Amino acid sequence: MKPFIDYILQFGNLNQQQTDLIMSKAKMFELHKDEYFSEAGKIPRQVGFLLEGVVRFCYYNNKGQEITHHFIEENNFVSDQEKFEAQVAASEYIQAVTDCRLLVFSKKDWDAIGNTIVGWDAITGLILKNCLLKTIERRSPLVSEDATTRYLSFVENFPNLMNRVPLSYIASYLGITQQSLSRIRKNIL
Fold this sequence. Notes:
This protein is an alpha+beta fold. It is built from eight helices and eight strands. The strands form two sheets. A four-stranded antiparallel β-sheet has the order 1-8-3-6. Strand 4 and strand 5 form a beta hairpin. It is elongated. 25% of the residues are buried. This is Cyclic nucleotide-binding protein. It comes from Flavobacterium rivuli WB 3.3-2 = DSM 21788.
């Protein structure tokens, strides 16, 4: 699983024995389109690394509307990390948008890696910080820009998702109706 190891090595140095240990704890996991990796109200039991596919983070607002607030594509971690670490119930869903293949680690195995590899906490801390910064960077413009600019930013930030993600999810992510999204797309093309 070279993409996974390459990803981790961006954030710290590990020797072959350490990467072998990490890989020995990983399990291959298939998630079919529309299935949940993690569900609101349930304790997240695993952290994953997305090898193939797209997932989204979503929740239901107080009006019962489904809101997509984040997409993750290949070669990124998939986790409700705060809830996973604390082993408390999640407040959002992580759902497969496409068929997905992931490497997953149980809480027990994730903790075993952390207890065995000196510096693992520093590496995972940098990974988490990187993920949060990416999320903020992608979400911040959505607050202050008009709908057309938000859509163009989405296309720029997620060029590979346009043909892989239903328009309803994109509209929800952008905070607009699907009709508005269709109008924007028609005016741009």
